[in-house]
Amino acid sequence: MASRQSGIRLAKRLDEVGFSDIVKVRDKVVELRAEGHKVHGMHGGEPYFETPGDIKYAAIQALVENQTHYPPSTGMPPLRKALVEKLAAKNSIRVTPAEVLATVGSSQGLYAAFQSVLNPGDDALIFSPYWTPIRDLVTGAQARPLQVATISARRNGIRKTLENFSTPQTRAIYYNTPQNPGGVVFTRAEAEEVAAFAIERDLIVIADEAYEDLVYEGTHFSIASLPGMAERTITCFTFSKTYAMTGWRAGYAVAKEPFMTALRKIVLYTTNGVATPVQYAMLQALTMPETKIARIREEYRRRRDLLVAGLNEVGLECEPPAGAFYAFPNAEKIHKVSRTAAQILLDKAHIATVPGSVFGGQGEGHLRFGYAVTIKEIEDCVDALRAFFK
Length: 390
Ligand SMILES: Cc1ncc(COP(=O)(O)O)c(C=O)c1O
Prior knowledge:
Helix content is about 40%, strand content about 15%. The protein has 13 helices and twelve strands. Pyridoxal-5'-phosphate binds near residues 238 and 246.
């Protein structure tokens, strides 16, 4: 007799969607700390400083003034106007307020972007190593992620490499600069190659510029600013990293039609917008002067240099990352398999890192160390590494 499938089952679209391995590391650290161990937490991506006071007070003031009602689900008009000005001044992306959408972190923008663009059976090119959730966002749309090794693409030519990996089902390219975890900052010339390929193949680019302000070598360049790209690019930004606002869940997406209508529908039916007081905080954050952002960037550069020097000193070879706030050294000296290397480092040195393999095949053999922590935490971590390798 044919067995009947139980009604208590999940929708198929979740079959290939994983649950972030980074969250698993975070849980393990909480467990170790609860047992009384001192853990060097290098696994995270949380800025080392608190959300600036003026941003917090903007939200408090909004609450006191009863700005607690439904927001326009696309974002309140003054916020979208301020975003339009920021995009023109900083990213050379010229859009109207109707082409900007407030999102619950850039995570919601990215989710909406992949859902809006990919059909089941489509392929999406993603530079690898990549930020872990991207694979799940692609598979959650029942599409297939095609991993393009960033290192070989830069060595052998971006356009040629994209051509090699592309299939007739390819519909989109995920383009993250500065990159998490590798710290790669794509140049303008490289963006032009990606753009030329996207235009030739009629592909959509989903650009992730979460770390736009954290570039130490080179300059940040937005691919949507290139001729012919605004109409085929969905760019996702966040307030999480620049302004230390990870917990506020504040971001925005930029796109033209038909994508903007699709993104708006997804925001409408998932969260119905960004919390009203958070939108006031976002508006305030946008007034932060560039000089202050530059000072924060220099703080990160100090951390980067300290950590990278320490890693190289103990023989974990590491190029200084050009952007973002992660070091991604080769960890084969600890163990060839990055999951085992991370486990050993956690057990023996109480240093929490993220195994490179969770960022895709090209991450194997590496560990990710986040340096968005205090200088003291980096010094302690380097001391623990020295003791471990003694
Ligand atoms: C590359 C990249 N994109 C997007 C995000 C999402 O950030 P949020 O949802 O906080 O805006 C992160 C967070 O770590 C990231 O590393």
